[in-house]
């Protein structure tokens, strides 16, 4: 008897599979070295404020006992945190949480240098606060600060002068929630660097930053603030600063004079 062709379509297997094929094995969990796990635990304590900027953290022996690991494991974790500029080792004193309040790190994110000497030789910057306003975040600002468009933000404008010469004009954007209560008067009254104010009075510690740099010509407004002719070459620097866990906390747009200063960065 002749075979009658079936009217039902033949079952087909996905390409590359055969009958009775074993199910794919789940991906293996990512391996994390023990010192990396300890680094994460220490970082969580920094983020929670258990140890504040400038404070001494427990010794390697104390941390080893706390986490039940060897001192060598703790040392390796702290070495990485120090390389990330999150803590600072001091010979004979211990390890401290990094801070922007200390003289040697006040200009950690500022790479503008005078053509003669360095920033420390120029003395502290003189600050002129133009205004500090609470606004609703435009789309580009919200995107940079990981906010929703229309959320509350602070906009600060100021001029920084070195040796009485206006050198930098800045527009700074901050999320409104963490910086509630920040005013132009409060900024003007604080004598230390702005990031130190953020640490001590708002509990926000800037740990890293990313920059975009381009050359522009001074428009009329920036030329007047910097005391240069319109069309003068300026350096435009847009910086996003982050706190722990890569949370953006500041968008800063600066215009730098280039006739007396230059941008310097060390690469390794």
Could you outline the blueprint of secondary structure elements for this entry?
Elements: H1 34-48, H2 60-67, H3 71-83, E1 87-90, E2 94-97, E3 112-114, H4 119-122, E4 126-136, H5 139-144, E5 152-162, E6 165-175, H6 184-189, H7 194-202, E7 208-217, H8 220-226, E8 233-243, E9 247-257, E10 261-263
Antiparallel strand pairs: 1-2, 3-10, 4-5, 5-6, 6-9, 7-8, 8-9
Written overview of the protein:
This protein has 268 residues and is an alpha+beta fold. It has 2 domains: 34-97, Orthogonal Bundle (Arc Repressor Mutant, subunit A); 103-263, 3-Layer(aba) Sandwich (Chorismate lyase). It has 8 helices and 10 strands. A 6-stranded antiparallel sheet has the order 4-5-6-9-8-7. The chain has a two-stranded antiparallel sheet with strand order 1-2. The chain has a two-stranded antiparallel sheet with strand order 3-10. Helix 1 crosses helix 3 (71-83). The longest helix is centred in the first third of the chain and has 15 residues, at 34-48.
């Amino acid at each position: 008897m002749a075979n009658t062709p079936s009217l039902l379509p033949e079952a087909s297997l996905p390409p590359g599979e055969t009958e009775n094929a074993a199910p794919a094995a789940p991906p293996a969990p990512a391996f994390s070295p023990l010192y990396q796990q300890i680094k994460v635990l220490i970082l969580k304590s920094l983020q929670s404020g258990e140890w504040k900027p400038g404070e001494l953290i427990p010794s390697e022996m104390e941390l080893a006992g706390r986490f039940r690991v060897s001192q060598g494991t703790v040392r390796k974790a702290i070495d990485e945190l120090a390389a990330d500029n999150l803590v600072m080792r001091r010979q004979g004193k211990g390890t401290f949480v990094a801070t922007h309040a200390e003289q040697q790190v006040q200009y950690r994110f500022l790479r503008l240098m005078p053509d003669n000497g360095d920033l420390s030789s120029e003395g502290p910057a003189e600050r002129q606060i133009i205004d500090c306003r609470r606004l609703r975040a435009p789309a580009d600002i919200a995107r940079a600060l990981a906010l929703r468009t229309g959320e509350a933000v602070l906009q600060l404008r100021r001029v920084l002068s070195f040796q009485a010469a206006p050198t930098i004009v800045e527009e700074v954007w901050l999320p409104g929630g963490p910086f509630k209560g920040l005013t132009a008067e409060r900024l003007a009254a604080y004598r230390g660097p702005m990031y130190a104010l953020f640490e001590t009075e708002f509990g926000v510690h800037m740990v890293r930053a990313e920059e975009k740099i381009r050359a522009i010509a001074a428009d009329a407004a920036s030329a007047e603030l910097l005391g240069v002719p319109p069309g003068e070459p300026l350096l435009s620097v847009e910086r996003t600063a982050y706190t722990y866990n890569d949370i953006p906390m500041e968008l800063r747009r600066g215009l730098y004079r280039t006739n007396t200063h230059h941008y310097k960065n060390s690469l390794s």
